[in-house]
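Help wanted!
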Amino acid sequence: MIAVSVSSGTLVLVGAVFLACAVEMVEALTIVFAVGHTRGWRSAFEGTAAALAALAALVAVFGPALVHVPLTWLRLIVGGVLLIFGMQWLRKAILRSTGLKAKHDEDAIYQETVAELQVATGSDRDRIAFVMAFKGVFLEGLEVVITVLTLGTSAHRLGLAVVVAALAVVIVAVVGAVVAKQLSKVPENAMKMSVGVLLVSYGTFWVGEGLKVRWPGGDTFLAGFVVLYACVCWALVTMITPQHPSNPVKVDA
Amino acid sequence: MTKQTPLVIRLIKGFALFWWDFLVGDTPELFIAALVVIAVAAWLSESIHANTTAVVVLPVLVIAALTVSVRRAVSAARRK
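Answered by r_m:
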């Protein structure tokens, strides 16, 4: 029973971190490709490297600090944050699945970024490319850092979370380099839906743990939450979809 | 917030704005729902020691919050 509990908790952690990192990496990579193709790869790589260094510094500073926060408080706060974050992801993914919100279109983001970069000319050329790549990687990376730090420290598996995140980043980078700007083929909404389910599951579980709720079966209950929330999402998508078979995008939020 | 504003103030404001966008953003109902979930779970677990009820109520409240938020978005889309 203990082995099953540990592996189910670990599996959810690995899945949540890997998918969240992969999704954010796809978004960051799209921006870097757009910058590289438009302005040259040197500035794109410099911006990316600077952003990665800044993110690494954040992990180095806040990672060890979080470990010293009492576990019940850490799990309550992290659980609350993950609940909010996860519900936001799920809401967007459900609305996208039903056609009420535009799906994240990497091709459109690529074209927008290229257009933005082509307008700006002159001596600021390299600086603009650097800032664009830095912003793209840093902002998307920040979500990865928050996910890795909160999930990793609360589960007392920060090392595992960091390794899984790095693996996701490398895999997406390699695949991205091979397929160039064909990142729109990635089933991003399905991945976001999965991440949302995992984050809300962890959020619910840790809010309970932080408030000394005793879950039947311990960590195994986490897997039950994953199944429950996945079913709820499926039900919500099914309930809403038939009423809007081919509606255009209407939801802004 | 001009360039004359001290760097520290700009950093603090930027930090606060980041967390506001991150946690509240365009879905304040989900932020409030999470606080309600925590408050109810705390009351059930810590005050009246109703562990079994907390085990059931916690996910039910989360599902209710998500459903209400999605329904609100759908209703808003229909009104447009």
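OP: Thanks! One thing I noticed: Confidence is low (pLDDT under 50) at residues 1-5 of chain A.
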